Amino acid sequence: MSVDLQRLFKPKSLAVIGGGAWGEAVVKQAQAFGFAGQIWPIHPVKPEVAGLPAYQGVPDLPAAPDAAFIGINRDATIGAAERLSKTEAGGAVCFASGFAEAQAEDGLAGDAQTRLLHAAGDMPILGPNCYGFINALDGAIIWPDQHGLSRVDRGVAILTQSSNIAINLTFQARNLPIAMMITCGNMAQVSQAAIMDALLDDDRITAIGVHVEGFTDLTGWEAVAHKAHARDIPIVAIKAGRSEAARAATQSHTASLAGEDTSADALLSFLGIGRVNALPEFLEALKLGHVCGRLDSKHVASISCSGGEASLAADLGQAYGLTFPALTAAQTATLRDVLGPKVALANPLDYHTYIWRDTTAMTAAWSAMVDPAVALTMTVVDVPDLARADPKDWDCAVDAAIGAQEKGGPVAMVSSLPETMPTAVAERLLAHNVAPLQGLAEAMAAAAALTRQAPCEGLLTGTTYDQHIDHGERAAKEMLRSHGLNVPRNALETDPDQIAALNFPVVVKADRIAHKTEANAVILNVRTADDATAALATLPPSGGHNFVEEMAQGGIVELLIAATHDPAHGIMLTIGAGGTLAELWQDTQHLMLPATHEQIDAALGKLRIAPLIDGYRGKPAADRAAIIDQILKLQACVAMQTDGFVEIEINPLICTPTEAVIADALWRQTYPE
Question: Could you tell me which CATH number the domain at 296-449 has?
């Protein structure tokens, strides 16, 4: 994963290949942004580009450039990359499209990308189909368009595969200091993980935001997650592909497989990376990360002068999984002294307006809400702009927020509306390490995304081949039995003596038919060996050996447990309500493997059917330890067969007060031709 991107991102010389509008724009934007290095336009005919003398080709340059913009057509790009590589240039941005991200009419898109990679060799390339980057820390820029960034001393880095999203984000009005804006294109060579790895070596980067259309380099993502956690740098992701339409658009535009969104969620959780759903949430989460870093928990406090705002904060916080701890005795005593007897004390707190403009009292009240058990204290204040009101009337609130931070922190001042946070106010808050968050919903989403979570270790991935094999139920169960899972005794239809030796009642099954209930391929509660033989004769043909199996008794709840290989994300564990109504209930939790005992236990507790597992309304509880034991053994089984692994599904796992029994199983693999 390690790629040396220092010369590319911090160049002292820039070659611009292509004298058209895009090449001229790169030169002009570099000049306008104050790029202090040499700019060397290249054009075979034009004597100058954007007022600078042009060189006829790469060999004519005074020296090997630290960075280059290749703004010519697809096929010419390949030759230019090769010439730059031979001069030992520091890296290049490949602007042209028509590589693997497109279905080119000439059918040569994939071949063109292969040739580009060969031509570049060890020279780093961003793209192709890439706009470039803006380094607002050092004034280095390869960008063929207008943008809205200004120079900063420190700030967040944003990576996106979409050039248009990057352009729009540079014009954000949410007072977020953006230090680096990097477009990644179709990542033929340099992945987002490799870029983040390089950014984490710069102490001026305070948080990293990544817009992901598809994951590549899973090993690199895992390494970056651990590196970011060790350096306490938050990473926030916005992942495209929740809808079928989004996945189709992603595949057609960037050649990135979005994969199943549930496994993307599970992967980001495995990596300890917070996920948001919209660009406003993305920007606010990065701003919170820039000021406060990671939050220790989902425990927050809110203080406002409105009961309506307090209720809204509580509702929105709950929707994002945040909690509002009750006030401690010490907090209650302090607040009572400051606010008097007429204010009901709670978290969220409506402090009324008795103390408005009394900065000392406001600071005391807000500081009292700051507590070690609370990861973030949010003061809800909307400040109008200068054109419509005198914002000085709100200086008391700004001063109180700053005072509260100085006495404890982390503190955010949150405007309920995005537009009621003037830039002057936000800049003052930022200067005093108070996060100026814009929009109450966005603030809650940001707090949820910034909650500290350590990445897990050793992501399980697998290899998929072209040829599939679906094992029958009995073969699946025998494989699971060999790994120590609890499979009932069974006997083939061809062995009447073994059938007679089973403990009755039994279940009679067709071997290679999925969804047996609908196909009349399963008969329950068979009481004798003769009845079992008769029942076998009624089963539909299955293409395998039908069998008889001892029937689990005393079931309290049925679970679905599955491990599935998603090539885009790794191997995902699904735990959910099982049985014939599994699809109807849609009650599932997802974890990437490997998962710990504690994570599995927590996932079981999040199911809507968790009360059934624990014993509902006086009913006995299922053996939770036995359930977790079976899941851990399934995980160990999967870890031993990742090569060619596709899926193992147990449905149902019948859970009783004393054991968890595998009643049905599916096992799919792939193999080389």
Answer: 3.40.50.261
Domain extents in the chain: 6-276, 296-449, 489-550, 557-671
Buried b (16+ CB within 10 A) or exposed e, 331-368: beebbeebbeeebebebbbbbbeebeeebebbbbbbbb
Q: What is the CATH number of domain 489-550?
A: 3.30.1490
Omega before 652 cis (within 30°)? Answer: yes
Q: Among 355, 319, 357, 313, which Cα is nearest to 338's?
A: 355
Q: What is the DSSP code string of 56-89?
A: SSGGGSSS--SEEEE-S-HHHHHHHHHHHHHTT-
Asked if 80 contacts 70 with a C-beta cutoff of 8 angstroms, the reply is yes
Say how far apart CA 196 and CA 186 lie, in whole Å: 16
- What is the CATH topology of the domain spanning 6-276? Rossmann fold (3.40.50)
Whether the link from the prior residue into 410 is cis, omega within 30° of 0, is: yes
Helices (H), strands (E): how many in the chain? Answer: 23, 30
Give me the pLDDT at residue 98, please: 85
Phi-psi region of 280 (alpha: psi -120 to 50; beta: other; left: phi over 0): alpha
Q: Tell me the pairing of strands 300-304 and 557-566.
A: unpaired
Residue 2 has pLDDT above 70, yes or no: no
Give the helix, strand, coil percentages of the chain, each rounded to 5.
35, 20, 40
Give the max Cα distance, the chain.
97
Residues in the chain: 673
Q: Which residues contact 158 (CB under 8 A, 6 or more apart)?
A: 166, 169, 178, 180, 181, 182, 208, 209, 210, 211, 286
Q: Does this chain's domain 6-276 share its CATH topology with 296-449?
A: yes
- Beta-carbon neighbour count of residue 26 at 10 Å? 29
Q: For residue 579, is pLDDT > 90? A: no
Q: Is there a contact between 8 and 69 (Cβ–Cβ < 8 Å)?
A: no
CA–CA distance, 213 with 221 (Å, rounded to integer):
14
CATH number assigned to the domain covering 557-671 = 3.30.470.20
Q: What is the pTM of this model?
A: 0.91
From CA 468, how far away is CA 422, in angstroms rounded? 60
String of b and e for 233-263 (b: at least 16 CB within 10 Å)? Answer: bbbbbbbbbeeeeebeebbebbbbbbbbbbb
Cα 510 from Cα 659, distance rounded (Å): 25
Band of residue 585 on the pLDDT scale cut at 50, 70, 90: confident
- Pairing assessment for the beta strands 92-94 and 125-126 based on DSSP bridges: parallel
Cα dist from 205 to 158, 228, 433, whole Å: 10, 11, 16
- Supply the DSSP symbol for 614: H
Hey, what are 405's tokens? 């931070």
The H-or-E segment that residue 317 falls in is helix 307-319
